[in-house]
Amino acid sequence: MKWSELSIHTKNEAVEAISNILHEAGASGVVIEDSAEFGKPREDQYGEIYALNEDDFPKDGVIVKAYLSESSFLNETVEEIKVAITNLTNFNIDIGENSVTVVEVNEEDWATAWKQYYHPVKISERFTIVPTWEDYTPVSTDELIIELDPGMAFGTGTHPTTVMCLQGLEKIVKADNTVVDVGTGSGVLSVGAALLGAKSVHALDLDEVAVRSAKENVTLNKVDDQVTVYHGNLLDTVKEPADVVVANILADIIISFTDDAFSIVKPGGYYITSGIIGAKRDEVKAALQASGFVIEEVLLMEDWVAIIARRPL
Ligand SMILES: C[S@@+](CC[C@H](N)C(=O)[O-])C[C@H]1O[C@@H](n2cnc3c(N)ncnc32)[C@H](O)[C@@H]1O
Predict the structure, then answer these.
(1) ipTM metric
(2) CB 3.0–4.6 Å: which of 48, 54, 84, 284 could bond 21 by disulfide?
(3) Tell me, what DSSP letter sits at residue 48?
(4) Closest C-alpha to ligand 1, atom 4
(5) In which residues is S-adenosyl-L-methionine bound (predicted)?
(6) Residues comprising the binding site for S-adenosyl-L-methionine?
């Protein structure tokens, strides 16, 4: 899978706010290169590797780098990030020259450097996402913990589109349900559905890296008996009717297969779609309705939309 490295040249005082913006935009990690850091003595008791070459540091200010999966919502996300950073000036934050560049990188180039920035996060009434390398003690007996190592697949669980899907699943999935997760990425939604009691979950993705990552996360969460992960294009390989179908993919892709989704969802069952930017909401709603779905609820988070639709009985 290809990744895009987003580099923002800014000032020290804007680093925290920009890092937040990048995390909220779904970046798997943020790396900070501060000109003031060059030449400082380093503590390396944990075996960290530091760049020693002056060329690896900006000449002035700070460069904040983030890594975004190219199969996610790259163009929309980069535009949103640029707007959010420019808006920081409304709060009198000096964002410096604010140049933003995007380059394609390979998986190996950034490996797991981002892991130190990814911590347990409660994302709904019941779900908490816990990175595998963190210790976490549940705060209530009702809490459902999704342990996750997304590796290179999309789905740290914290992107607004993922959060809304998990909230939708939490409302809908009943014990003994059959669920299909189209574009499973790290497998986060399938693991969530299984923890809610779904009897059988079909997790599929077009990307082999995602299939591998989802399999690992399914095993990590001990839901192998419920979840089957496989390589597949949209609903082409799914033949069994499902109580719930969930698809967190781009709006245009969702629009392209609403008829297939309708034929897979059982009468009275649900279709949760996400990955929809605000401007595409009505187009997706219209496509769902044209296929026969009834819109039950529209969820909003930042500029993202998720739609919960139902196939009438
Ligand atoms: C935005 S990610 C969602 C990941 C995860 N379900 C989540 O909610 O965090 C979209 C996923 O859809 C996959 N995908 C894109 N086109 C697809 C297709 N035609 N068939 C199956 N999966 C696809 C991508 O590889 C990616 O893993």
Answers:
(1) 0.99
(2) 84
(3) -
(4) 185
(5) 162, 183, 205, 248
(6) 162, 183, 205, 248
Please work out whether the CB of residue 243 comes within 6 Å of at least one atom of ligand 1: no
pLDDT of residue 309: 98
**Domain boundaries of the chain, sorted by first residue:** 3-116, 119-310
The stretch 167-183 carries a mean pLDDT of: 96
How many whole angstroms from 64 Cα to the centroid of ligand 1?
27
Residues β-bridged to residue 87: none
Strand partners, 105: 3
Residue 186 has pLDDT above 80, yes or no: yes
CA of 51 to the centre of ligand 1 (A): 34
> Ligand 1 centre and the CA of 253: distance in Å?
10
For ligand 1, whether the C-beta of 223 sits within 6 Å is: no
Q: What global pTM score does this model have? A: 0.72
Give, using CA atoms, the residue closest to atom 25 of ligand 1.
207
**Number of neighbouring beta carbons within 10 Å of residue 103:** 10
305 three-state secondary structure: strand
Q: Report the C-alpha gap between 196 and 215 in whole angstroms.
A: 18
Rounded to the nearest angstrom, the distance between the alpha carbon of 185 and the centre of ligand 1 is 5
| CATH topology match: 3-116 vs 119-310 | no
- Given a contact cutoff of 8 angstroms between Cβ atoms, the answer to whether 190 and 200 are in contact is no
Report whether 94 contacts 16 (CB < 8 A): no
Q: How far is the CA of 183 from the centre of ligand 1 (A)?
A: 3
Decide: 207 in ligand 1 pocket, CB within 6 A: yes
> Considering only 109-113, 128-132, 281-285, which range has the smallest mean pLDDT?
109-113
pLDDT digits (tens, 9 = 90+) for 205-247: 998 888 998 999 999 999 999 999 999 999 999 999 999 999 9
* Ligand 1 close to Cβ of residue 275 (< 6 A): yes
Q: Whose CA is nearest to atom 6 of ligand 1?
A: 184
CATH architecture for the domain at 119-310 = 3-Layer(aba) Sandwich (3.40)
Cα three-residue angle 67-69-72, rounded to 5 degrees:
130
pLDDT (tens digit, 9 = 90+) per residue, 250-267? 899 999 999 999 999 999
